[in-house]
Automatic annotation (TrEMBL):
InterPro entries per UniProt: DnaJ_domain, DnaJ_domain_CS, DNAJC11-like_beta-barrel, J_dom_sf, Mito_inner_membrane_organizer
Coiled-coil spans in chain: none
Domain J residue range list: 15-83
Protein name: DnaJ homolog subfamily C member 11
Source superkingdom: Eukaryota
Gene3D superfamilies given in the database record: DnaJ domain (1.10.287.110)
Pfam families assigned: DnaJ, DNAJC11_beta-barrel
Length: 367
């Protein structure tokens, strides 16, 4: 059973036209007749010998696979151009049917580019954030009486008072080792700084991993850290982090332990103890479902103790729109935040949050 050759085809080990013993120009009726005839000839039930029956089953499955591909005009057109390699490409199920060979070629190239992008992202997992803080207090609390003689004082003074940029990338070194490089730049009220961190993570077993971290910045100085993660049970895990921060004032050690437990399918409970750098005890409950995200937290610490409640609603649309609100009250005052975010491109999300605080004032953060 020989197959006709074509300059556009990608050769395969099993040619579907050859398996069905038909021409490449065969009609649907010819395909159906050939398939039925071969099924009757090679049906496994016709053999009693176990070895012959096994061989017949393999051939029978190949015949069925060939007919499934060639009997569908869409998959047949893809197979005629790219062979089985084209059928293995993910994404054809959402492609509009009844396309011409030229359109199928264009779609295949697009799907191939997307697959390569996904592979690169899965290996490197790049993440980046840009946040801009805008002071909008003057919109709500004017000081006209103090500046009534100043030109342009009738317009509210809106200022960008802070900005934060961060970026991270992961590089798998071996099956168990990963390097993570991250950096950030921040500025607030005219003062700013940045830092860069390198972490080396090793998966030690199915239950845990360890991580070494090295960092340096122009504000806090060199940093050395050790983090360990361990699953205690199927529903409970612990994370421990030890850090040494070096500065002009000397060496400052820090120790953090987080104990977490699955309370149900969608709810996690956390207990955190932090000593050294901003010592505190924190407990929180986080519930995350398909349509919502809820967090409640309490903290006793130095310099801040507070209570926080936040809720986020997730809309099931293509833009992944989310609206959120939170209330945070403590020794620093009270802050109410509300905002929204949505996906604006395949790899980007835009969000905005209004923060109203006492005594902090009103600010707008765009992320």
């Amino acid at each position: 059973m020989a197959a006709a050759s074509s300059g556009d085809e990608v050769p395969d080990n099993e040619d579907y036209y050859s398996l069905l013993n038909v021409r490449r120009e065969a009609s649907q009726e010819e395909l159906k007749a050939a398939y039925r005839r071969l099924c009757m000839l090679y049906h496994p039930d016709k053999h009693r010998d176990p070895e012959l029956k096994r061989q017949a089953e393999q051939l029978f499955n190949l015949l069925h696979q060939a007919y499934e591909v060639l009997s569908d005009p869409q998959t047949r057109a893809i197979y005629d151009i790219y062979g089985k390699r084209g059928l293995e490409m993910e994404g054809w199920e959402v492609v509009e049917r009844r396309r011409t060979p030229a359109e199928i070629r264009e779609e295949f190239e697009r799907l191939q580019r997307e697959r390569e992008e996904r592979r690169l992202q899965q290996r490197t997992n790049p993440k980046g954030t840009i946040s801009v803080g805008i002071d909008a207090t003057d919109l709500f609390d004017r000081y006209d009486e103090e500046y009534e003689d100043v030109s342009g004082s009738s317009f509210p003074q809106i200022e960008i008072n802070k900005m934060h940029i961060s970026q991270s990338i992961e590089a798998p070194l071996t099956a168990t080792d990963t390097a993570i490089l991250s950096g950030n730049l921040s500025t607030q009220n005219g003062n700013g700084g940045g830092s860069v961190n390198l972490a080396l993570r090793r998966v030690t077993s199915a239950k845990g991993w360890g991580e070494l971290e090295f960092g340096a910045g122009d504000l806090q100085g060199p940093l050395f850290g050790l983090k360990v993660f361990r699953n205690l049970t199927q529903r409970c895990f612990i994370t421990t982090n030890f850090a040494l921060q070096f500065s002009s004032h000397g060496m400052r050690p820090g120790f953090t332990t987080v104990l977490a437990r699955h309370l149900d399918k969608n709810t996690m409970g956390y207990l955190q103890w932090r000593w050294g750098i901003q010592s505190a005890m924190n407990t929180s409950i986080v519930r995350d479902t398909k349509t919502s995200h809820f967090t409640m937290a309490f903290q006793l610490g130095i310099p801040h103790s507070f209570m926080m409640v936040s809720y986020q609603h997730k809309f099931e649309d293509e833009e992944q729109t989310r609206v959120k609100g939170s209330l945070k009250a403590g020794f620093f005052g009270t802050i109410v935040e509300y905002g929204a975010e949505r996906k604006i491109s395949r790899h980007s999300i835009l969000g905005a949050t209004i923060s109203v605080g006492v005594p902090q004032g009103v600010s707008l953060k765009i992320k």
